[in-house]
Amino acid sequence: MAKLFISYSHKDEVHRQELEVQLAMLRRQGLVEIWHDRRIVAGNDLDGTINEHLEGADIVLLLVSPDFLASTYCYEREMARALERHAAGEARVIPVILRPCDWMHPPLNRLTATPTDGRPVTKWPDKDDAMLEVAHAIRTAVEGQGTSGTPHRPSTTATRAGVAAPTGATPERPRSSNLRIRQEFTDRDRHLFLEQAFEFMANFFEGSLEELGRRNPGIETSFRRIDANHVSAAIFRGGRRMSACRIWLGGIGGRFGGDILFAYNDTGGDNSWNESVSVDADSQSLYLKPMGMASYMGTSRDSKLTAEGAAELFWGMLIQSLQG
Q1: pLDDT value for 256
Q2: Considering the domain boundaries, does residue 241 fall inside one?
Q3: Beta-carbon contacts of residue 225 (< 8 Å; ≥ 6 apart)
Q4: Is the same domain home to 205 and 307?
Q5: β-bridge pairing 2-7 and 59-64
Q6: Is the predicted pLDDT of residue 160 greater than 80, yes or no?
Q7: How many Å apart are CA 232 and CA 224, to the nearest integer?
């Protein structure tokens, strides 16, 4: 069984929990034992316990984000020591790129990151697809350990139960890693999530249209905030209108069939649309669920989208006529 140590910023705790869900089969098959600092027992020495598990890990996952890179503890202590053990052949270090950040520099850029090409998890239209790819990379690393030698282990002493424990350490009682419980989300949580998602989309479209015009001679764009709940966008080539849309906030459980709606025109009323996303929740997080009237990059009614994933869905619908 491979020992997995997860180094992460607490601001990315939701992402860590989602990754653990995807690693459930590895754990059920007895291939991995997962440890992170939320498993520290009350009263145990914080630094000592972290160091003990870091030194004993076969695989160290670095959940890379702006907050991870900004954290002195994550970057200068956990990551630095993990890379030393990686260089010595004592452990394998796998960077998992969670959110866009400036990570493509030494020492991280010397390692193969996951998901593929280091595309951040939050940039995928469906976060589950990204986390599944991360899980596959970890499975490959775990299954390859049998041919790569046995990683370094600290010296051990026998415990009363007959299980080896690191010398000088206080033995921990065996317990499950399956300690997640269902999260409850209020109407207020859903309302704030929806408002933030809409505001993100508005900024996403404004920035994307500006960049589209800068990169492509002959392309002109228009973005307009009609009011607090409506925005419009249009793309022109050589002065000819090529594509346009409106996006508006319908409200949770709105009578128009979606919480945020998209229509292929930049004028008109709110009674006609081509796609929409609604706020939904699983046991751990809120997400946006598409109606499924349009298809882009494999997005379906079963997709669980972040605000960025939903924005990419709508943006793909707007720009696809220029890409065909």
Answers
A1: 46
A2: yes
A3: 202, 231
A4: yes
A5: parallel
A6: no
A7: 5
